[in-house]
Design brief:
The protein has 213 residues and is of the alpha/beta class. It has helices at 10-21, 37-43, 52-57, 72-78, 96-99, 101-108, 113-120, 135-140, 158-169, 200-212; strands at residues 2-6, 25-30, 47-51, 62-65, 87-90, 125-129, 150-155, 174-179. It has an eight-stranded mixed sheet, with helices on both faces. Helix 1 (10-21) packs parallel to helix 2.
């Protein structure tokens, strides 16, 4: 697959390196692509650095959102003609202390953060993933054959669910499907499985316990 990484910090950078290692074509993007040379070198021959505009114009199969949550409105509007029918993987989190009033509004709303992203990127199919795991575990525990960590994810439809599962498993994690986007409250900041790095059975048990109460 061709994957456009929107935001190439700790989460986007590590995911891109793993996907490149797994054989996917990775387009790292930022407002300053020249600053991504060392990241591209680490990621290998399947990766390149481009501007955000170039990433969307590249007609990727999947776009990973790993930029600050406050950028969702602008990016979804600017590139509305480019991502129709694509898979969007939303790894963002609304942090009011960083993202301001719009993040607080989303956290106070009667919908959750992934549903907000799906509303904004309405012509795409949204997967929520990679927003709950610590960046260092994402970096260091990929491609593990023992003590595999599970990545929880949710998806909008069957196609996005299949792609999300594949891209998690391609980098050596277990994929744990938690439901559709309306079920992702437990993945949001300060909620039940946010910040938890667990094996599949332990994570599944935590999800089940949370939903019983």
């Amino acid at each position: 697959m061709k994957i456009g990484i929107i935001g190439s910090g700790n989460i986007g950078g590590n995911l891109g390196k793993h996907w490149s290692k797994a054989g996917h074509k990775v387009l790292f993007s930022s407002r300053h692509p020249n600053e991504l040379k060392s990241l591209v070198k680490e990621a290998g021959e399947n990766a390149e650095a481009v501007s955000v505009t170039e990433a969307f114009e590249a007609n990727a199969d999947v776009y990973l959102l790993a930029m600050p949550f406050k950028a969702i409105d602008k990016i979804s509007e600017l590139y509305a003609g480019e991502y129709g029918g694509k898979i969007i993987i939303d790894a963002t989190n609304p942090y009011p202390e960083r993202d301001g009033e719009m993040a607080q509004k989303v956290r106070d709303a009667n919908y959750n953060a992934s549903e907000y992203t799906a509303m904004k990127f309405a012509t795409a199919k949204t997967v929520k993933a990679f927003n709950t795991i610590h960046a260092e575990h994402l970096k260091d525990r990929a491609f593990s054959t023992i003590d595999k960590l599970a990545i929880p994810f949710a998806a909008q439809d069957q196609e996005s669910r299949a792609v999300g599962k594949q891209l998690i498993e391609d980098m050596g994690f277990d994929a744990l499907y938690v439901g559709n986007l309306s079920d992702t409250n437990i993945m949001d900041p300060d909620q039940a499985i946010y910040g938890k790095s667990l094996d599949r059975s332990t994570l599944q048990a935590l999800v089940n316990t949370t939903r019983v109460h």
